[in-house]
Amino acid sequence: MPIYEFRCAKCKTTFDKLVREEIKPQNPVICPNCGSKRTRRLVSRVSSYRSGSSGGGDCAPSG
Ligand SMILES: [Zn+2]
To answer: Which positions fall inside the Putative regulatory protein FmdB zinc ribbon domain (predicted)?
Structure first.
């Protein structure tokens, strides 16, 4: 499951939260520090797993 990083717009605290499903406006992420709903998801800087090399197709126009 992906872990996203959030930032509270009220107390400016940053926290990471494990998101199981898509974040919807009706159930926003609550700030664990002040309990505010004004949180914004930051750009994911969580180290992701590197998938193995997959066979890619090189389509070079011959001729
Ligand atoms: Zn807060």
So the answer is: 1-44
CA 56 to chain centre: 27
Ligand 1 centroid distance, CA of 11 (Å): 4
Distance 14 CA to ligand 1 centre (A): 8
pLDDT in tens, 8-47: 999 999 999 988 877 777 778 999 999 999 999 887 655 5
Number of domains in the chain: 1
Q: Give the residue numbers spanning the domain of 22.
A: 3-41
In a domain, 7, yes or no: yes
Q: Identify whether 9 is part of a domain.
A: yes
Q: What is the pLDDT of residue 35?
A: 97
